[in-house]
Sequence to fold (207 residues):
Amino acid sequence: MKLKRSRVFFWIFCISAVAYMLSCIILFLGKLFLKWPVDTMTIILFFAIWLPIILPLLGKLNIGRLKYKDWEIEFMRKSVEQFQSEYAERSNETEIGKDQKSFKEQGIEFNPYDIRLKYTSNRADDEFFNVTVRLDAPEGFMPQVEKVTYKMHPAFERPLVDTTIPPFENKFRCWGEFTIFAVIKLKNGEQLRRQRFLALEDSQEEE
Fold:
């Protein structure tokens, strides 16, 4: 029995080592060609690859009586949620850099960092959430906005929603988390782009 367990742990170690090397290769390629947010991807790829292999084996050995399935699913959900949220923020950083240059050229005296999307969510029933997304920007900036077009998840019947009245709210019901995109069209013809990952929680107000 001891010999069998030793062999199992030996193979666990070998599989983990191979998985780690593969994740490093993927990370390097992703950073080089796709500009991935490496810190988060390191966690996701490393654990995602070897946890589904190691935890079931430990469960079969009855070590600590691990309830690995529920833990693994929750871990993966949180990891993906964190990655999507950070990816949206990094994309916003890229857009803000473009806006700073454009604002300077056009003499617009607002900080693009102050122009963003905010949302609130609360549970409607056992399946759905009520969500409100709005444009959060300085009061003096709002009159310069002609409209905000929201791009929803493709599963919605109306994936594109136009709003023309400040604060340009988009209210809807949904059952799953996703990234919402917004095109902010100014009256001078300029277009700004923002996005936000909607992490649905009961009575959630995201800053």
User: Anything to note?
Assistant: The chain has a mean pLDDT of 78. The first helix runs from residue 2 to 34. Helices lie at 2-34, 38-60, 68-106.
